[in-house]
Specification:
The complex is a heterodimer. Chain A has 17 helices and 4 strands. Chain A is mainly alpha-helical. Chain B is elongated. Classes of the chains: A mainly alpha, B mainly alpha.
Chain lengths: 480, 233
């Protein structure tokens, strides 16, 4: 061993932990989502105070966003970051605190939400003690990431790292600013913002939670794991640069598109619309960079379930990032706002783009984490088809439902009076709620197939085998 | 190569992180700071008053039960909306709303103007069994609200915290919060009984009563504004 070489042992224990916890929370969150869907179609399925729709719905969103998606992001970023920087994570202790602290937070979230401890702010429902814990664990993650970057042995930081860095910084800012509140008791607080200001800040947070939890870190996963799986470099580095900076700069401005035709000042709404429309370009830059990386390897998509998931995931990313800007235009928003169209839009992004990319990432990592082959490629292919069917069964009826109800709300008779009572518009969309619940059930079945596949993979593999080691060939100090 | 200018960023993590922070902070500052200084957006309606003790308890129950996941409280400025619900929402209505409860999905109808639309007894029956009133509704029943005793042990503390945030509660209002809430609850119970519905002692002091007080308060400032305007004419 030369003086300039050193054996690096990556810490894969934290990755294994997050991979398993993410999958478990994913199944819990999707099952709770299915319950919520059933409750909308069959109100008899609400039980007691604890399993009522108003409490179940926030549990669904928190479990799938913070338990599942962020779990995969933690796992994938810990996996990719060590390899891209050629060093072990900065601190094993911080990694453990991150893993156990985060999962304790999700457990606390599940319990308190069902007990009705909620701030009512969407995707920020958790009360102040949990908010403080989230901030603390997030700082732990940030120190771990930046500490690793400071000690890295690979001078250049690859695009995936930029997207994870943007996530670390922006989520800290959003979470802290939006959650400031004065406690009344251990589980009750009042926001320091009121009315219009509160709405403005909440949707600055809410929209950018989509931007920096469901977009940038997932793009980071795509940037790392897609080229690895396909074994060729990303299509264009220049495009990475261009769409990274424009995406993070523009995204932040788009929040007010959630508040169009509200009492928010008109200029703020207009900024929201304008920047949302601009967002098409950087979003599609990311989609194209991913899809064009597959150029010349499309034959492999036929047999490789991971590439299938990336391909369909990127396609849905492109679709929902066109749909979103369109819904931000005032004319369209006047029809779509408050309807199921929004729910359909969110799920085309969340199931199509986020979940499929997360599944692909897990399918890539898990055999490597347990030093074995995937138990069954056929089952993974089956999962892909089942998930895609579930996704279409979910999203299509929500589009129809949203447009139907939006049109019925605004329908007027020749004399100018309203044609439909509100309850008639509820009855008209019930059938779509039923189909949507079926779509959600199908998607959940796909996730259960994956769980079985992963379980069998882990059983045939072993975590104890020597970690991938590497003599750092590049004797370069990282540089600040 | 055309992206060489970017290499110093890709190889310097502090620079990359700093520039990333600047990129995301600009939009936030531009959108979040100015509204604080725009007088027109924060002027309260003349008729607006803070929530009473019982209404405040009801509002916090509304939050606990996640009613905002299905009901919006934001009427948009379209004729079809104002015909259906009432006057459109104003910025000056919300200064005592912590948090705001505009919602994002109307699974049920908007509630911003529901105050005074139905008698207390209608709400009582609707909470107990929505389908007895409207067979097609998908609203779950809230029987448990009518059976759970209303907890007023924190009411004064709630009002104290809100006063620190600028809500104009007097010392007398805060000290007398409990008695005030009980009296208001008894008043609502009386109006329900007057409509021929028997209430047990527990039911007359249940959480549902506070929720009704809150719902009946929704839109009060706009209604009174309209009354005042009509009077002036």
């Amino acid at each position: 061993m030369s003086a300039q070489q050193e054996v690096v042992q990556y810490d894969m224990q934290v990755v294994r932990g997050f991979a398993i916890s993410a999958l478990v929370w994913g199944i819990v969150g999707m099952a709770v989502g299915l319950l919520a869907a059933i409750q909308l179609a069959w109100p008899e399925a609400n039980w007691g105070p604890w399993l009522h729709f108003g409490r179940v719905r926030p549990l669904h969103t928190n479990a799938v966003i913070f338990g599942f998606t962020l779990g995969v992001v933690f796992a994938g970023s810990y996996y990719g970051l060590q390899r891209l920087t050629r060093v072990r994570m900065f601190s094993d202790t911080l990694s453990r605190i991150n893993l156990w602290g985060w999962n304790a937070i999700i457990v606390a979230a599940a319990v308190t939400l069902l007990l009705g401890k909620s701030t009512a702010k969407e995707y920020a429902e958790l009360e102040w003690p949990i908010d403080i814990a989230i901030a603390a664990v997030w700082v732990v993650y940030a120190v771990n990431v930046f500490g690793t970057l400071a000690r890295r042995r690979e001078k250049q930081m690859y695009a995936a790292i930029w997207f994870w860095v943007a996530t670390v910084i922006t989520i800290a800012m959003l979470h802290i600013v939006n959650s400031i509140a004065l406690p009344v008791s251990l589980w009750k607080s009042y926001s320091v913002y009121a009315g219009v200001f509160d709405a403005n800040i909440q949707w600055w947070y809410g929209h950018n939670a989509v931007g920096f939890l469901l977009t940038t870190p997932i793009l980071g996963l795509m940037y790392y794991f897609l080229p690895k799986q396909i074994d060729r470099p990303i299509y264009s580095h220049r495009l990475s640069i261009l769409h990274f900076w424009s995406l993070i700069f523009i995204y932040i401005w788009a929040g007010p598109h959630h508040l169009i035709y509200s009492p928010l000042p008109d200029w703020t709404q207009t900024f929201g619309t304008a920047f949302s429309v601009m967002l098409i370009l950087p979003s599609w830059g990311g989609m194209l960079n991913g899809l064009l990386t597959m150029q010349g390897a499309w034959d492999r998509v036929r047999t490789d379930p991971i590439l299938k998931m990336f391909a369909v995931g990127l396609t849905f990313y492109g679709m929902s990032t066109f749909e979103g800007p369109m819904m931000s235009v005032k004319t369209v928003n006047s029809l779509s706002h408050f309807t199921n169209w929004t729910i359909g839009h969110v799920h085309s992004g969340a199931l199509g783009w986020v979940a499929l990319t997360c599944f692909a990432t897990l399918y890539y990592m898990i055999p490597r984490l347990w030093h074995t082959e995937l138990y069954s490629v056929r089952l993974a292919n089956l999962h892909f088809w089942v998930a895609t069917l579930g996704l279409i069964l979910y999203v299509t009826p929500m589009w129809i439902s949203g447009v139907t109800q939006g049109l019925m709300w605004r329908a007027v008779n020749p004399d100018g009076s309203l044609v439909y009572t509100f309850i008639e518009t509820v009855s008209a969309i019930r059938i779509y709620d039923v189909i949507r619940a079926a779509g959600g059930a199908v998607f959940l079945v796909g996730a259960l197939v994956m769980f079985y596949n992963v379980w069998m993979t882990i059983r045939q593999g072993t975590a104890a085998a020597p970690e991938p080691t590497l003599g750092a060939a590049v004797p370069v100090a990282g540089g600040r | 190569m055309a992206y060489e200018w970017h290499l110093p960023l890709e190889s310097r993590w502090i620079r990359l992180s700093t520039l990333t922070f600047l990129a995301v902070v600009v939009g936030g500052l531009c959108l979040l700071i100015p509204p604080f200084f725009l007088q027109g957006t924060i002027e309260p309606l003349a008729s607006l008053r803070p929530y009473t003790a019982l209404e405040l308890e009801g509002r916090d129950l509304y939050i606990r039960e996640g009613c905002n996941t299905c009901h919006s409280q934001q009427v948009r400025p379209f004729k079809t909306e104002t015909d259906r619900y009432g006057p459109f929402s104003l910025a000056g209505e919300g200064i005592y709303d912590r948090p705001f409860l505009w919602g994002s999905r109307r699974t049920g109808p908007d509630l911003a103007r529901v105050g005074g639309k139905y008698p207390d007894s209608w709400h009582w029956l609707h909470f107990k069994s929505p389908r007895d009133i409207e067979p097609r509704t998908n609203m779950p029943d809230f029987l448990f609200l009518t059976e759970a005793p209303l907890d007023l042990s924190l009411t004064s503390t709630r009002m104290e915290v809100l006063r620190r945030l600028g809500h104009p509660y007097s010392d007398a209002e805060i000290e007398g919060a409990r008695a005030d809430a009980e009296e208001a609850a008894a008043e609502i119970a009386r109006s329900i009984r007057a409509d021929g519905i028997a209430l047990s002692e527990l039911e007359a002091r249940s959480e549902a009563i506070a929720m009704i007080a809150y719902l009946q308060s929704l839109g009060h400032a706009v209604r009174q504004n309209a009354v005042a305007a009509a009077g002036a004419r």
